[in-house]
Every structure is written in structure tokens, then in C-alpha cells.
Design goal:
heterodimer; A: 787 residues; alpha/beta; six-stranded mixed β-sheet; B: 259 residues; Alpha-Beta Plaits; 2 domains; six-stranded parallel β-sheet; two-stranded antiparallel sheet; globular
Chain lengths: 787, 259
């Protein structure tokens, strides 16, 4: 990297995230104003957006070429009190907590106390939401049966397609006008609502164009003061770029990146949507600009790389908005999950890998920063050289890029009813979630704690932690005469809690639709303009909701243990086992060891355990898949944990697989940590017995010692392993390439390992930033010695 | 020689005493936090290992039919197809079970699975001839060219081994020589030269250097056997590289490690 990039990279790595009250002040100011009370909701939101972009501080730092920050400066993190209004106590916790802290200065606390909290306390969507949830919902939520994604962050979970690279926002405005003109006020009872939504989009378009012009103005001002001739030229170019995009279609590589970046900032300023925003298939979108630039001599490979690296730094400057409570537990990271896709196939089905795909991999390797996340899509048409180039980066132990199966992703999307073009233009975002980019709202609504459901089943509907009955009375398990009876009780509990969750979701979804539309995000997503409907109200072409299953390995091994030890082999009486669980295996170490070592386990290509996994999958699938949401779409399932497996583990007592109380449950579709003892081929066989195609994404974590990948043969073997997993329709695989010793040392001497990045679950993070439980778990994940 | 054995792994033992309680032959005793097995009395009934919660006690080795082994092989077929890899028969010494090995090789042949046999080469030439045409690759140990040293450390002459090697080479078999580097025993200049000359004279080019290690000493302990090369250290990386260079100077393609 060159000197400019090096300096800005250092700045983004060394600057500590802090809270800026800027957005909170502006949004409060607007909502308090007289004008706000007179308007329809979408128009009010659009004007609030406009107010933010008109008033917020413009930042252009020394040496920058790609410009724009969400806050007044890099790593200054705004808050979104209309969604979640932090209390003074929350701010205090954010300031002092050990993991993912945000500095909060006295002035910010004062502003919160005097202006923000008094206004938003009873108005935030979080307050409203909790007040509308049923007793059953609250009981299950508090017990840790499921989490709720939308209590602190807005729906988002989406990715942009290629539309901005051939259209300026003024062209979007034309589309909006056309849609307005086609409204039928005679026959369409929703015409007024649609009109208001479209007006809101129009306001949002102008707001972003104005925001870009403010950057041009700022650059002009800096240029006047600038003494360095070269920098003056650069600032002149910035003026030119920001005057052209986003209003008009980009003319070159630089403008394409800057255009996306303004759009990105717009989306994450309007609201705090999950997974921020994401350019998606970056190598596909930028390739025409890259090629044109090289052909006409206006761009060099080095310049393109520099611009990409500066673009990378922009992502890293925006930590995820501060989370508190359960949401902080389930997603305990600064990473905001923008996942850049490379590779895959084109809309016509041909191989999508191009020179830019390789250049992006060079950028990933050189930058080694957690954001944006990166991945490679590997289809059967992708050249081995591309996969191996990615593996060479993975083996350096930085946890990126992760590897996805394009052919399987396309099958998933087709099964869900997407067109073949939309499927091929899609990919994965967030951690591992599948989506039709630019056309789909695919909302994660919450994690679902499969192990907790079993615990409640084994206690006849009672949560043993509190003694409260929060589930169904499915019978005293001691009375069950067969495994089938027990499993049936588990299934009924599971269906019950899924129902409770979906009932809650249906309310929360309407709250966002009615109170917090997102007109700016909407205009970017097909077919919101066409339908005159907001993204949060079903405007997107496809509207999918997910409930993410967590602890598949733990629940499989637990049920396998019950079936094998209690019902088949009759080695232990259920009464005895329940006593042992209650005692957290104190005084039952023999039994615990038998459960750990002498019981079939998922992840070993063992039919006994794997068949149970398949049955659980079917039950979970049947409980959720195909159910309607309130936006004209359907529920689907997926399996990913972010960091929630730590939290879910904390609320579940000892489990029949030999896991002690409070230990993490398994993550993604990976086997229980350390239970896979037959090597990676057996793991892959077990995991691919699940029908990944009927999910919207699964996460498989594997850890390898770096020496395994030291030479080309090692890389070849890993490539074969991945190709085989993908042939078996596996969705995703990621690798932690570090040895346990290194990690233990990092735990002891965090000061020495500030730059040690590891793959957590669908994203990378600095090891020293992780909680000690998560650190321990990463150490424990089976270290495969040979394959 | 080819029977299951009872293995005891101290580190896994949690001192629960289940094995002592369940041994019908009273062959297991427990004193001073240590399990000891009187192998004279043990008849390998396996009751102790069945009751052992941690698999500290385990019956190592099990009898399997050809069909059972083939079922295991089939599990990994998809990986072989992708990597163009296959099955390696090793051991112990697979040629000790010649008919069984032959039957498995036939099964693999029918399935178009690539096969390798990892052998010390100490077998009758009839045995070698029987399987040679069904094997795609021999991983063939040549420990030392010196018959005396060979006899001293392995108990047998190396003559049949070198003779079998010649037969395979002349038959046109694909051979990868495996040369265990055991410091002070077979790493002399002289032995390296002799080995290279012998191998090259038969037109074989590929050789792997397998550095001596003591990973097996734990297993020996678990089987109550004496481990007799305790004092020998693994060769240094530098020495390995030197030997590799020497072999390459003779015209061999040498590689460190077995992978």
C-alpha cells in the first residue's frame, strides 16, 4: 500500500470508537419542530433525513480521495433515539464496558439528559414495541428462548445491486415521477398512501444530492486554503466527483466508488439498519469502469487498488451502532457486517471471476482490517486459481475471505421463488444470509435457542432457572416410555415458541411499517418505487423473514444422548440423568464422561447422530418455512449465530450431551466444539446430510493449524475439501487458521496481539476484543491435525 | 500379532474405578491413582472398556469383514472423486493380511478407486506378485541398505525387502520410496549414497524423507510395551534439508514429509 493508504489505515485502526450526539440532536430538533407534526409519516421521515444531511458536519480528512463520514469524523458513532433511546445508565455501560466500548464524553451525557431522553423516552420504537408484546412473548424473551433483532436496530439486511452504476439519482427521480403519475386516485384506495411514500422518496433523493454538493463545497473551501499543488489537484477532482455523483451516473471508477459511498452513508444515516449496507457484487459492478479506465488510459491498476483501499477504510471508519442488553450479547462486535462479494456467476450463468476479482483479493490481503467483511463465491465454473488465491489469504490467519457456494445459493433462491436472473445476481450478506441483491428484504427477526426448548421440555414447560412455567405442559418426561414420546413433546414446545415469536414479529413489523418507513433505502430497492410502497412495508420485490436456529450441534447431541443412553442402551435412567443435569453434573462426572465420550455425536459421519440432526432440521423447517409475514412474503429458516451462542449458553443449564451449565452452545451448523473427532471429511459428510438448499444460509466453522496449509499441496487439499463440500450442496465454510497455543498466548498477553484477527462466526474480529468466553471457545474449536 | 489389544491412556483416566469393578478376571488393579493391567490374566473381553466413561481403556483394533471395510471406503468416495485421491492400505503391515488386502484391492479396482499400499516390503515374492498389478502406488520403506544394521534393529534381513523392491520396479510399478531418517542409525553418508544408488539403478526417482519421531511412545506405554528408541532425538530441520540435498544431487526427487 502507498503512504496515503498507510496513514489513513493507521488512523482507522488506532482511533477508538466514540459516541457523537450529532444525529440525536438533529433528529430531536426536527421532530420537536412544528413542521414535523403536520406531515404524513413517510414525508416526515424523509424531511428528517433531509434535515440530518443538511445540517451534519462534513468531514474531508487529509489525504482522502473517497469522502464522507456517517458522523462528524471517523469512528464517531451516531445514535438513533427514535429506535432505541439510550438511558444514562446505558451510556455509562457503553463508556466503561470491557468489550466493544464506546467513549461517551460528559457533554454527550449532558445533552442526552437534557434534550434527548426527555423527548424520546416514551416515543422510541423500543419502548412501544416492548409495551405491545404479550406476557408469553416477554417470558420467552427473558428466559432466552429467542432474541429480537428489531428492538434496537431497524430492518435492513439487504444489499445493493448494479442499478446505481448506470443511473444517477435524477434518473431515480424520473422513475418516482412516473410512478406518481400512474397512481389511480379513482380506483386505488391506497393511492394517497402511495403518493406520500413517493413524495418522501423524492425528498430523500434531493437530500442526498444536496449532501454530496456540500462535500463539493467543502472540498472547494479546502482547495482554496491548500498549499500543496498535488493535493489541490486532488481536491479539484473531489469537487468534480461530488458535483457529478450521485446526481448522475458515474463516468469512471472513482465516481462509481464515491457514488456507492454516498448511498451507503444515506442508508446508515436514515436509520441504523442491520448489516449496515453493502455494495454486494463489487467485482461485477466495477469491472466495466475498471476495463474502460485501463483501455482509455485514465486508470492504472495501482490507482484502482489505491481507490479500493481507501474505500475499504471508509467501511472500517463506521463501527456498528452501539448495542446494549441482549442485542449487545447476541452481536457483540464493532463489525457491521457489510460483506463484499467477489466471484460467482453473471446473470447469464457464465463465470463471473474477472481481473478485478483478483485485485479485490489483493486489497483484502493488504488491508487486513475487519470491515468490510469479504467473501468469495465459488461456483463450479470458478477457476481453481481464484479459490486458491483466496485460500492463500485465508491461511495468513486473518479470517477473511469466507467461502460460499454460488450454485447452492442459486438453488436456495430459486426454491424461494426468485427468477433465475435475480438468483444469479444474488449472493450472501451479513454473516451467511442469502439474498436477491437489490430486490429483496430478508430480515433476520431473532435467534432461536433450540437447546433451551429441550431444557424446557425436560422440565415439563418450566424454565429451571426461574422455576416459572413459560412453555406448554407436555408431560413429566420421566413418564415417557419411548424416545418418540419425548421427541413429540420437544416438537410441541418448539412449535409453541415459534408461534409466540411470529405473533410478536407480526406486531413489530407493523410498527416499523407504520412509524419508521425508510424512503431513502426504499428507492434503492426494486420494486418500492413501482409499488409506491416502503421497504419496511413490503415494497421490495421479495420479502423474506428469518428465524435463525442456534445450537443445532448441541440439540442433536443432546437428543442423541437421550435416545442412545436412556431409551436404546438403557445405560442410564432418565430420572438419574435429569438429576445430574440439575446438579450440573456435580457428583456425576462418570455419567458426564460417558455422555461426552461414549455417545454418538454429530460431526463424525455417524448415521445415528446425523439422522437425529436431520429430524430436528425437518421439525424446525416445518414449524417456520412458508408461513406468511405481514409484508406479502414468507418465513424461512437459516442457521447462524453471530455471538449469540455464548448468550444462549449462559441461559441454558447442563444439557444431556455432557455440556455444563452456562457453557456456549454450538454455533451455526458446526458440530459441538470438540465433538468432531473424525476429521474434516467426516464433518463435511455430517453437515451436508442437512438439506442446505431449503435454508437461507448455514454457517460452518473449521479451524486449521497454519502448518497444514504451509505448502501448495496443503492448499490443494483444502481446495478439494471445499469443492467436495460444495458438490454436496454445502452453503458456506470459513476457516480460522491459527493454533491454540498462539491464541492462549494472545489471551495472556493481549497487548502483543492487537492485530490478531480471527473468524468469529460469519465475520472477523480482533481476538483481543472478544469476551473471554468467546476466546475460550475459539481455542476449543477442534484443531484438526490432519486431513 | 494381528489381534486386538487393550490400550490404557493415563491422561484420559478420571480414576473412577469402573474398570476394576467390572473386570471378571481381576486383571486390573488400582493403586496410587494408577490403573495397572495384568495382561497375563486379561482375555480382552472388553468389559472394562465398555464401562470406561472416557475411553481411557479401549480395545484397539477390531475384526472387520471385507464388506464392512468397503462400506467405510464408500463413505469417502466423493472426496476421492474430487481430489483424484484414493485409499491407502497401511498398518502395521498390510501384507500380513495378504488375502484380505487382495480382496479389498479387487473391490477398489471394481469401483475405480485409486489404491496405495504402504509396506515395509518384508514379504514373500509370491505375496508381492499377487497384488502388484492391482496397486497404483507402493509407499515402500527402505530403512537401511546395511543388512547387519537392519537385522540389529528390525530383527530380520533386508534382502527380501530389496529383492521385492527390484521385482516391483522391474514390473513397472509406481513406487514412492519412504526413507525414515533415524539419527545415528541410518543417516550416514554411506547409507544415503547406497540407498540413492540402489533406488536409481532401478529407475525409481521419488523419495520421501520421514523424520524419526516419538509420537508412538505413548501408545507403547498404553500397551505396556517397552519403547526402545527413547533416547534418539528427531533429526533437525537443517539435517533433513542436507540429506534432501544429497539425495537430489544423486538425481532423486526428494521431499521432506510423507504427505
Amino acid at each position: 500500500m502507498n503512504e496515503r493508504v498507510r496513514k489513513l489505515r493507521e488512523q482507522t485502526i488506532n482511533t477508538k470508537p466514540y459516541i457523537t450526539p450529532e444525529r440525536a440532536i438533529l433528529i430531536t430538533e426536527f421532530h420537536k419542530s412544528d413542521v414535523a407534526s403536520q406531515l404524513s409519516t413517510p414525508v416526515r421521515r424523509a424531511l428528517a433525513f433531509k434535515h440530518l444531511l443538511e445540517k451534519k458536519k462534513i468531514c474531508i480528512d487529509k489525504g482522502e480521495l473517497i469522502v464522507g463520514e456517517r458522523g462528524p469524523a471517523p469512528k464517531a458513532v451516531p445514535t438513533y433515539p427514535e429506535i432505541c433511546c439510550h438511558s444514562l445508565e446505558d451510556l455509562e455501560i457503553l463508556d466503561v464496558r470491557k468489550k466493544t466500548p464506546f467513549t461517551v464524553d460528559k457533554e454527550t451525557k449532558r445533552i442526552y439528559k437534557e434534550n434527548i431522553i426527555p423527548f424520546w423516552k416514551s416515543r422510541s420504537i423500543r419502548e412501544t414495541m416492548f409495551s405491545k408484546m404479550s406476557g408469553e412473548w416477554k417470558a420467552a424473551y427473558e428466559a432466552g428462548v429467542f432474541t429480537e433483532f428489531l428492538e434496537q436496530r431497524a430492518p435492513g439486511h439487504t444489499v445493493l445491486d448494479n442499478k446505481i452504476y448506470s443511473k444517477g439519482l435524477v434518473d431515480f427521480k424520473k422513475d418516482i415521477m412516473e410512478s406518481m403519475q400512474s397512481l389511480d386516485f379513482l380506483n386505488d384506495p391506497k393511492a394517497y398512501e402511495k403518493m406520500e411514500e413517493l413524495k418522501a422518496m423524492e425528498i430523500a433523493v434531493d437530500a442526498l444530492i444536496f449532501y454530496a454538493e456540500r462535500h463539493a463545497d467543502k472540498a472547494r473551501e479546502l482547495q482554496r486554503k491548500e498549499k500543496n499543488k498535488e493535493r489541490r489537484k486532488e481536491l479539484e477532482k473531489i469537487v468534480d466527483v461530488c458535483s457529478h455523483v450521485p446526481a448522475h451516473a458515474p463516468r469512471d471508477f472513482w465516481e462509481a466508488l464515491q457514488y456507492y459511498w454516498f448511498v451507503h452513508l444515506g442508508v446508515i444515516t436514515e436509520l441504523n439498519p442491520w448489516d449496515a449496507f453493502n455494495p454486494g457484487r463489487l467485482d461485477q459492478h466495477l469491472y466495466p469502469f475498471y476495463k474502460k479506465g485501463l483501455d482509455n488510459g485514465s486508470l492504472t491498476k495501482e490507482k484502482a487498488k489505491e481507490l479500493l483501499e481507501l474505500f475499504w477504510i471508509k467501511f472500517n471508519n463506521q463501527p456498528a451502532p452501539p448495542k446494549v442488553g441482549v442485542t449487545a450479547e447476541e452481536s457483540n462486535t464493532y463489525n457491521d457486517f457489510a460483506l463484499v462479494n467477489t466471484g460467482g456467476v453473471k446473470a447469464d450463468g457464465s463465470d463471473g471471476v474477472n481481473e478485478l476479482s483478483y485485485l479485490i483479493l489483493d486489497v483484502i490481503e493488504e488491508m487486513r482490517i475487519p470491515q468490510p467483511s469479504s467473501m468469495v463465491q465459488i461456483s463450479k465454473k470458478s477457476p481453481d486459481s481464484f479459490l486458491k488465491r483466496a485460500l492463500r489469504i485465508i491461511k495468513t490467519g486473518f479470517g477473511q475471505p469466507s467461502v460460499f457456494n454460488t450454485d447452492e445459493i442459486i438453488q436456495e433462491l430459486l426454491r424461494q421463488g426468485k427468477s433465475i436472473e435475480d438468483a444469479r445476481n444474488g449472493g450472501s450478506s451479513g454473516c451467511v444470509e442469502t439474498g436477491a441483491f437489490g430486490k429483496e428484504s430478508y430480515i433476520l427477526t431473532g435467534y432461536f435457542n433450540l437447546a433451551k426448548v429441550l431444557e424446557i421440555t425436560l422440565n415439563n414447560g418450566v424454565d429451571p432457572r426461574t422455576g416459572e412455567r413459560i412453555g406448554l405442559e407436555t408431560g413429566d418426561p420421566v413418564e415417557f416410555s419411548s424416545f418418540e414420546e419425548l421427541f413429540d413433546a420437544f416438537q410441541r414446545q418448539l412449535n409453541y415458541f415459534v408461534d409466540v415469536k411470529i405473533k410478536g414479529n407480526n406486531i413489530i413489523e407493523r410498527l416499523y411499517a407504520e412509524h419508521l418507513p425508510a424512503p431513502f433505502l426504499s428507492l434503492l430497492m426494486d420494486d418500492c418505487i413501482l409499488k409506491g410502497k416502503d421497504y419496511n412495508d413490503g415494497g421490495a420485490r421479495y420479502n423474506t423473514n428469518y428465524i435463525q436456529g442456534v445450537g443445532l450441534g448441541t440439540i442433536t447431541d443432546s437428543l442423541a444422548a437421550l435416545k442412545y443412553q436412556v431409551f436404546d442402551k438403557k445405560q442410564v435412567k432418565l430420572r438419574e440423568l435429569l438429576k445430574a443435569l440439575k446438579a450440573d453434573f456435580q457428583g456425576y462426572e462418570n455419567l458426564r464422561q460417558r455422555l461426552l465420550n461414549r455417545t454418538p455425536k454429530y460431526g463424525n459421519d455417524d448415521e445415528y447422530a446425523d439422522n437425529i440432526m436431520k429430524t430436528i432440521f425437518e421439525v424446525y423447517f416445518d414449524a417456520i418455512d412458508g408461513r406468511p409475514n405481514t409484508k406479502g412474503g414468507n418465513y424461512r429458516i437459516n442457521f447462524l449465530p453471530t455471538t449469540v451462542h455464548i448468550y444462549f449458553g449462559k441461559v441454558v443449564g447442563a444439557t444431556p450431551d455432557g455440556r455444563k451449565a452456562s457453557e456456549p452452545v454450538s454455533e451455526g451448523v458446526s458440530p459441538v466444539q470438540g465433538a468432531d473427532r473424525k476429521g474434516p471429511t467426516a464433518v463435511i459428510k455430517s453437515v451436508s446430510k442437512m438439506d442446505h438448499v431449503r435454508t437461507g444460509g448455514t454457517l460452518l466453522n473449521q479451524k486449521f493449524a497454519p502448518e497444514l496449509l504451509a505448502d501448495d499441496e496443503g492448499l490443494d487439499r483444502l481446495a478439494h475439501l471445499i469443492r467436495t463440500y460444495f458438490k454436496l450442496d454445502g452453503h458456506h465454510i470459513q476457516f480460522n487458521v491459527v493454533n491454540a497455543e498462539t491464541l492462549r498466548d494472545a489471551q495472556k498477553h493481549p497487548e502483543k496481539y492487537g492485530d490478531l484477527l480471527v473468524r468469529v462466526a460469519g465475520y472477523s474480529d480482533y481476538f483481543v476484543n472478544l469476551g473471554v468466553e468467546l476466546q475460550n471457545e475459539i481455542i476449543k474449536r477442534t484443531e484438526h491435525k490432519s486431513f | 500379532m494381528l489381534a486386538p489389544e487393550l490400550m490404557y491412556r493415563t491422561r484420559r483416566c478420571i480414576d473412577c474405578g469402573e474398570c476394576v469393578k467390572n473386570c471378571p478376571k481381576e486383571a486390573i488393579s488400582y493403586a496410587a491413582k494408577k490403573v495397572s493391567i495384568n495382561r497375563k490374566y486379561c482375555n480382552l473381553c472388553g468389559r472394562c472398556s465398555q464401562k470406561c466413561p472416557t475411553e481411557a481403556l479401549a480395545i484397539i483394533g477390531k475384526e472387520m469383514s471385507v464388506r464392512e471395510v468397503v462400506k467405510e471406503i464408500d463413505k469417502d468416495l466423493i472426496f476421492y472423486e474430487e481430489s483424484e485421491g484414493g485409499v491407502t492400505f497401511s498398518g502395521g503391515e498390510p501384507l500380513l493380511q495378504l488375502d484380505f488386502l487382495d480382496a479389498l484391492l479387487k473391490e477398489c479396482e471394481e469401483r475405480n478407486i485409486c489404491t496405495a499400499v504402504d509396506t515395509c516390503g518384508y514379504a514373500s515374492h509370491k505375496a508381492i506378485d499377487k497384488i502388484s498389478d492391482k496397486v497404483h502406488l507402493f509407499l515402500y520403506d527402505i530403512k537401511t541398505m546395511d543388512e547387519k544394521i537392519h537385522k540389529k534393529y528390525t530383527g530380520v534381513s533386508n534382502k527380501p525387502i530389496l529383492e521385492n523392491f527390484r521385482r516391483l520396479a522391474e514390473n513397472g510399478n509406481n513406487i514412492l520410496v519412504r526413507f525414515p531418517i533415524i539419527p545415528g542409525i541410518n543417516d550416514s553418508e554411506h547409507n544415503i549414497a547406497k540407498t540413492a544408488e540402489f533406488v536409481l539403478s532401478l529407475g525409481i526417482k521419488n523419495i520421501s524423507l520421514l523424520p524419526y519421531h516419538r509420537a508412538g511412545s505413548e501408545k507403547y506405554k498404553g500397551l505396556s510395551r517397552a519403547y526402545r528408541l527413547k533416547k534418539i532425538q528427531s533429526p533437525s530441520d537443517q539435517n533433513l534439508r542436507l540429506i534432501k540435498e544429497k539425495l537430489e544431487n544423486f538425481g532423486l526427487r526428494a521431499k521432506i514429509g510423507g504427505g
